[in-house]
Structures are given as C-alpha cells and as structure tokens.
C-alpha cells in the first residue's frame, strides 16, 4: 500500500511541483494519473521511489517511510519498485539481456555486477521477464537495433526483473505510435492483472486513460483535483483537470496523423 | 506586406553588427604592440634563414641513421614509454573521470576534490613533470614513463569526464531506480554508453604521448629525444635531420592507424 500525506515538493529553483498531496493507493490497483505538462505527474512518480526528495509531508510505501530515508533504506525501497520511462532509458550500446539484468542490481553483489559476472539465477530471472513481454528472442541483440515499441518492452522487462510489488510508468507511450501504444498499455494491464503488481501510470492521452485505467487521478498545478473511478469520468472532468476544453492533441486516436496540419485553436 | 493576412510577416534584415570589425582591429593592434614589446623585427627573417647552421643539415648520413642501435633502439624505447604511460594513465583516468562528472560522482566532496587536484596536475607542464621525475628517480626511460603517466591522466580525465558530462543520464536513472548501488549503477548504466569514446580518447592520448616522449628525451627522460639532444651538442644536424625523417615516417603511420581505429569506434 502507498500512502501520501500532505506531501509537497519544491525544486531548488523555487518551483512548487506538488502541493499538499493526500493519496492512498491499495495493493493491486491500476491508477492512471493525468494532467498537463508541468502539473506534477513525473514528480509524483519520482517521489514514490525517492528519485526526487520530498520537501515536506510523508510518503509510505509498503510500510516504509521514503521521506528522509537513508541511502540503504532507499535502495531497499527501490528494489521493490519497477520504473518505466518515457524515453525508455535503455543502454543502447549493449544487449537487451544486459539491460534487463539492470533490474537485478539490488540483489546481485556489487562486485559481480561491476565485473559483469551475473549469477545464473539472475540471468534466468531476466530471461523470464523477457518472455513475459514476448521478446526473449531479442536477448542478445543490441538495444539500439530494436524498434521503439520493442525498446519499451525491454524497459518493462527490466522493471519486471526486479520482481516488484509496485510498477511506476512515466508516460510510457508518449514516444510511440498509436498501435504500439496500445500494445504497451496492454502489456502493463496484463501484468497488473496476472501478477497483481500495483501500477501507477502517467498518461498524456485521455482516450488511453479511459481505455486502460480503473482509477483516475487528475493533477493540476501540483494538486489533486480529481480522484475517482474511471467510470465516473466525462469530458467535464477532463476540462476541470486541464483547465481548458479538450482538443485533438489530447487524444491518441486523433493525434496519430502527423501529416495533418496543426489545429490553430485561436484562429477557429 | 499584402500577405500579412497569412499570419506572418518577413522580418527586416537585422543591422550588421560592427563587432566583428572592432575585434579584428583589436587583434591587429595587440599583435603590433606585442611584437614591439618583445623586440620582434620581421626584417631579421633573412638573417635567421641565411645562417650557415642550415647547411649543416645536409647530406643525411644514412649509414649512421639506419644503424639499428643509433636510431631504432632509442625510438623503440620512446614507444615503450608512450605505451606503458598511456595504459597506466588512462586506467587511472577511468574512475577519476567518473568522480569528476556531476552525473556519476559518488558525492559532492569527491567531485570537488578530484576536480581541484586534476586542475593542479594539468596546470603543471609535461616537460616540468619530466624534470621533476628525472630529479626524483634519475635520468632514463623510467622517469619519462612516470611523467607521461601523469600527463596521460591529466589529458584523459579532461576529455573523458566531459564525454561523461554530455552522455545520456537516462539509463543511470533507471539503474538507481532499480535500487542499484553507486558503482554497479555507473558500470551498467553509464560505462557501456561512453566506452567507445573512452577507447578513442585513449588512442588520441597515445598519439600525444609518442610526440611528447620524443621531446621528453631532451630533458633526460629517455627515448629518442636523448639521442637528438646528444647530436645537437656535437652540431651533427645532418644526423638530426635523418632522425627527424625516420620519426616523421613512423609517427605518421601510427597516427594514421590510430585515426582509422578511432573513426571506426565512434
């Protein structure tokens, strides 16, 4: 279970990314977080695994306080949290398998991972993770030789290799085309259902949020402005979250034609 | 401006800034001032180049030059110095460079101390390092190897830490998000990305070292430079020219090989 209480994050530059967030996420939930760029979505995810330190308030993940945790405790917390990134964050110049093995860093002795001497059981765990996302045949291919969708699946496999209880996905499909986006979202949904991994996904596209989310959290200017069942969400809700009416760019299905001229919202 | 209805208007060309002319004038003025201050006189050109010294360079005594022990032996020693110091210096530079980059440093004190120390090391010229080492461990290739190891380290950390600074921090963030410790995270999340650049920089440092180790011999740090200095003292410029020809050919070949290798790497 995740429990955020009166959580605030202010960056060194003075930007208040999150303001007094209270949020509880139960085990096994699939939560979609939406909001404009700069609303605090990325910060919210990164504060859960301590990549971004909280300024005040409390973040409790699986009974452990993240705020002010020691480096060792932080590593302990992170080992149970998989993370997927918008730009995949793969090491392009090495194999898919080596990328997935990074998910085993927290359990493999430092000298072994530093020398590249990964234990057999960890290589096995990495292979199993690759099988889960259906690209185990690419294990020895250089990551840079994969398509965007395949790269994101390697990202998911890397997170799965941690055998995590919680999965954080930071705009996992923003860099992908619509068909691949649905594939990747489907993978995340399946993993959530089959393995019972609590999943929190930041999304930019509203139709994807509706299609795959079960619970929706809306962020606006660093505050939670909506938190409820996806079934209760309508265009009015999105207008509240975005602070403006919905445009074609907010939809994956309509934003998939790069040849179409940009919509001049002021001119219409 | 009839097409202003289309929403955009061509801007007027911005006025040419007089800055370029000003800078050029300042450079010329300073050059003239500097020449006068150091007593440089272009009319001495002929005086320099008509000196009988230049006649002493010809003809090249090929018998002496091609006699193995005269040139090839010391030249091989020069390459040995360059090789050992490149390997040692660049190996040391790997962890130091990671400590010196804000992306991969383990903590702030390590970052500041390593940067400060390396700035000091780099501020001391390689020739002076060689002099110091000759004083410390005596005349010979041993001193030269030490001096060039320090020189390699200083050059390499500068080049490589800047490569690391500019590398994609994403995979490193992923390694940390997965709960990795510092060293394994850098090893798995950063090293593979920058390793080809590391090897390319090391090859470049090797090229620098070969040229530097020729010069180092002049101050007693072993290698071919020692022979050049000895022949200079006997005014045997013909032999020196012969050596320079051999050095040019060999260094040129090594550099070409190194350049070709580096191109394939990055």
Summarize the structure in words.
The complex is a heterodimer of chains A (268) and B (266). Chain A has 268 residues and is of the alpha/beta class. Chain A is 33% helix and 22% strand. The termini of chain A are far apart. In chain B, α4 (72-100) packs antiparallel against α10 and α7 (141-165) runs antiparallel to α10. The model of chain B has no long low-confidence stretch (mean pLDDT 88).
Reading the helices and strands of chain B in chain order gives HHHHHHHHHHHH
Low-pLDDT segments of chain B: none
By DSSP (H or I, 4+ residues per run), the number of helices of chain A equals 9
CATH fold group of one domain in chain A: Rossmann fold
CATH superfamily label of chain B: MetI-like
User: Based on the structure given, which CATH architecture of one domain in chain A is correct?
Assistant: 3-Layer(aba) Sandwich
Mean pLDDT of chain A: 90
Strand order of the largest sheet of chain A: 6-7-8-3-9-10
Number of domains as seen in the coordinates of chain B? 1
Radius of gyration of chain B, in Å, reads 26 Å
Main sheet attributes: strand count, strand direction, barrel closure of chain A: 6 strands, mixed
Distance between the termini of chain A: 47 Å
**According to CATH, what is the class of chain B?**
Mainly Alpha
Structural class of chain A: alpha/beta
What is the string of SSEs of chain A from the N terminus onward? EEEHEEHEHHHHEHEHEEH
Radius of gyration of chain A: 19 Å
What is the terminal-to-terminal distance of chain B? Answer: 50 Å
Tell how many strands the DSSP assignment of chain B holds.
Answer: 0
Summed over residues and divided by their number, the pLDDT of chain B gives a mean of: 88
Low-confidence stretches of chain A: 255-268
């Amino acid at each position: 279970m995740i429990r955020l209480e009166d959580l605030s994050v202010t960056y060194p530059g003075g930007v208040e990314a999150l303001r007094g967030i209270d949020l509880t996420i139960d085990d096994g939930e699939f939560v979609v977080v939406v909001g404009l760029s700069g609303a605090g979505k990325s910060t919210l995810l990164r504060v859960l695994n301590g990549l971004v330190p909280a300024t005040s308030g409390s973040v409790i993940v699986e009974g452990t306080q993240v705020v002010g945790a020691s480096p060792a405790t932080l590593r302990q917390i992170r080992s149970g949290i998989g993370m997927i990134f918008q730009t995949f964050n793969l090491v392009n110049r090495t194999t898919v398998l080596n990328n997935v093995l990074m998910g085993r860093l927290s359990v493999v002795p430092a000298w072994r991972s530093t020398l590249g001497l990964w234990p057999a059981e960890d290589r096995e765990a990495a292979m199993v993770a690759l099988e889960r996302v259906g690209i185990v045949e690419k294990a020895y291919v250089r990551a840079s030789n994969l398509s965007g969708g395949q790269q994101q699946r390697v990202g998911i496999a890397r997170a799965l290799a941690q055998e995590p209880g919680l999965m954080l996905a930071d705009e996992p499909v923003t860099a992908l085309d619509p068909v691949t986006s649905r594939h990747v979202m489907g993978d995340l949904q399946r993993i959530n259902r089959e393995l019972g991994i609590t999943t929190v996904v930041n999304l930019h596209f509203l139709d994807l949020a509706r299609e795959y989310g079960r619970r929706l959290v809306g962020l606006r200017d660093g505050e939670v402005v909506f938190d409820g069942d996806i079934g209760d969400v309508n265009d009015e809700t999105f207008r509240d979250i975005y602070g403006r009416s919905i445009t074609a760019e907010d939809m994956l299905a309509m934003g998939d034609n790069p040849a179409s001229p940009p919509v001049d919202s002021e001119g219409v | 401006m009839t097409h202003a209805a289309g929403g955009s208007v061509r801007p007027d060309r911005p006025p040419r800034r007089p800055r370029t002319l000003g800078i050029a004038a300042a450079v010329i003025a300073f050059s003239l001032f500097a020449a006068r201050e150091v007593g440089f006189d272009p009319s001495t050109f002929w005086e320099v180049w008509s000196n009988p010294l230049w006649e002493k360079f010809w003809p090249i005594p090929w018998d002496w030059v091609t006699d193995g022990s005269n040139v090839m032996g010391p030249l091989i020693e020069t390459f040995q110095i360059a090789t050992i110091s490149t390997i040692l210096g660049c190996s040391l530079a790997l962890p130091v460079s990671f400590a010196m980059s804000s992306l991969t440093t383990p903590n702030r004190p390590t970052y500041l101390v390593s940067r400060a120390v390396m700035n000091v090391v780099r501020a001391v010229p390689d020739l002076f390092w060689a002099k110091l080492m000759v004083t410390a461990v005596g005349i010979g290739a041993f001193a030269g190897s030490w001096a060039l190891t320090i020189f390699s380290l200083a050059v390499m950390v500068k080049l490589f830490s800047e490569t690391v600074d500019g590398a994609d921090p994403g995979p490193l963030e992923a390694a940390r998000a997965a709960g990795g410790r510092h060293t394994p995270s850098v090893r798995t999340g950063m090293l593979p990305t920058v390793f080809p650049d590391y090897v390319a920089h090391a090859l470049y440092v090797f090229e620098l070292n070969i040229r530097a180790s020729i010069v180092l011999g002049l101050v007693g740090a072993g290698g071919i430079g020692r022979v050049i200095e000895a022949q200079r003292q006997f005014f045997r410029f013909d032999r020196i020219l012969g050596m320079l020809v051999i050095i040019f050919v060999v260094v040129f070949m090594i550099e070409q090989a190194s350049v070709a290798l580096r191109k394939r790497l990055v």
